[in-house]
Design brief:
The chain is 36% helix and 22% strand. It contains 10 helices and 14 strands. It is globular and about 65 Å long.
Length: 336
C-alpha cells in the first residue's frame, strides 16, 4: 500500500533519471466540425464538414516521451520523421515540451505518421467521431536508415537509466536488428520497458507491458480475455514471462495491472475513475511512469502502482492525449 511519504520519495527519485524513448513518432490531428454550419457543396452532392478548429498533439512514441518529460525526468527520443509538415509539427511540439531531439532523425521522402480525427458536433453536446485518416509509412526501413538508427541507439544507451520502447507500426523504427540490440541491452541489465502492438513475443529479457488482449492473442488462448478469470489472466502473464525471460506488467484497464516476476503474480489495483473518462494516451502515461520508476530503482509492484496513478490522471483529461505531472499524481492520490 502506497503512503503519501513513499509516493513523494518515488516522485523525487524519478526527477533524477534519464529515460530514453525508442520508437514510432506520431502526430495526432483533431478537426472539430460544427455541423450546424454544414451545407450542400456546389462541386459534388455531399454536405461539407465545416471545420472550425484544428488541434495538433503528440501521439504514439512522441506522446510517450512527452509523458516522461512531464514527470520531470530527462527525456531523449530516438525516432524517425519525414521531411513533411507533419514531421515539422512533431519537432515543434517536442521542442515546446522540452524533449531532447538529438536522436530524432529526419528521413527525406518518408511519410510521417499522423492520425487525423474528424469530430462532429451538432446542436447537442454529443461529439461524434468520423473514421480516422491514417498517414502511415508502408515500406520497409531502408538499410541505410536502419544503420543510422542503430548508430544513434549505440550513442543513446550509455546515456540513459532506462528505455521505453514504443513499437506500434509494421514498418516503424523497431526493425528486427533494432529489436535484437534492445534485447541485448536488457540482458546487460538496463531496464527496457516494451510496449509493442504486434511483436511483444519477440522481445527477450525486457520488461513487457502488454494489455490482456495482446497477451491473450499472442498465446493463442481460446475465448475472450474480457471474460477471463483472475487466475486465467495470471496464468497468461506467467506464461509470457517464462517465454521472454523477464518481468511482465499485464495491464487490465479499469482492473489495474498484474506485476509478474518469476512465478509471483502481484495484482495492483487501478485508480478509481468516475465517468466520463477518455483512455486515449493513458497507456503511454502508464509506460512512461513505469519506466521512470524502474530507472530510479523502485521495485516493480510500487512502480506499477505509481503508473496506475499516472494513468488515472490522464483518463480524466477528456478529448486530448494528456500527460501526468508529479503534482497531478499527488493530487489524484489525495482523492483516493
Amino acid at each position: 500500500m502506497l503512503t503519501r511519504s513513499r509516493l513523494l520519495e518515488m516522485l523525487a527519485a524519478m526527477r533524477r533519471v534519464r529515460v530514453g524513448v525508442v520508437g514510432d513518432a506520431c502526430l495526432d490531428v483533431y478537426w472539430e466540425a460544427d455541423m450546424t454550419r454544414s451545407r450542400l457543396a456546389r462541386e459534388n452532392p455531399h454536405y461539407i464538414l465545416p471545420v472550425m478548429a484544428e488541434r495538433l498533439a503528440a501521439g504514439g512514441g512522441s506522446h510517450a516521451v512527452e509523458c516522461v518529460a512531464a514527470l520531470g525526468a530527462a527525456a531523449p527520443m530516438l525516432g524517425v520523421v519525414g521531411d513533411d509538415w507533419r514531421g515539422r509539427e512533431l519537432r515543434r511540439l517536442a521542442d515546446a515540451a522540452g524533449i531532447d531531439t538529438a536522436h530524432l532523425l529526419t528521413a527525406p521522402g518518408r511519410l510521417t505518421t499522423a492520425y487525423c480525427k474528424p469530430l462532429r458536433k451538432g446542436f447537442s453536446a454529443v461529439v461524434s467521431e468520423d473514421p480516422h485518416l491514417y498517414f502511415e509509412n508502408q515500406t520497409p526501413t531502408p538499410p541505410a536508415l536502419e544503420a543510422e538508427i542503430l548508430d544513434h541507439l549505440e550513442a543513446l544507451l550509455p546515456a540513459v537509466d532506462a528505455l521505453l520502447v514504443a513499437d506500434y507500426q509494421s514498418y516503424g523504427v523497431i526493425t528486427p536488428a533494432v529489436r535484437a540490440r534492445l534485447c541485448r541491452a536488457a540482458a546487460d541489465g538496463l531496464p527496457v520497458v516494451v510496449d509493442s502492438r504486434d511483436h511483444i513475443g519477440d522481445f527477450r529479457q525486457a520488461i513487457l507491458k502488454p494489455n490482456e488482449v495482446e497477451a491473450w492473442a499472442l498465446l493463442d488462448r481460446a475465448g475472450s480475455p474480457r471474460d477471463a478469470t483472475d487466475d486465467a489472466l495470471a496464468a497468461v502473464a506467467r506464461q509470457l514471462a517464462r517465454h521472454s525471460g523477464g518481468p511482465v506488467c499485464l495491464t487490465l484497464g479499469d482492473k489495474g495491472c498484474l506485476w509478474v516476476e518469476g512465478e509471483a503474480a502481484i495484482p495492483v489495483p487501478a485508480v478509481p475513475a468516475v465517468p466520463p473518462v477518455d483512455t486515449v494516451g493513458a497507456g503511454d502515461a502508464f509506460g512512461a511512469a513505469l519506466a521512470a520508476a524502474l530507472a530510479a530503482g523502485i521495485p516493480g509492484p510500487d512502480a506499477a502502482a505509481l503508473a496506475n496513478l499516472a494513468a488515472g490522471v490522464v483518463v480524466k483529461k477528456i478529448g486530448m492525449t494528456g500527460t501526468a505531472t508529479p503534482e497531478e499524481i499527488l493530487e489524484r492520490f489525495g482523492r483516493m
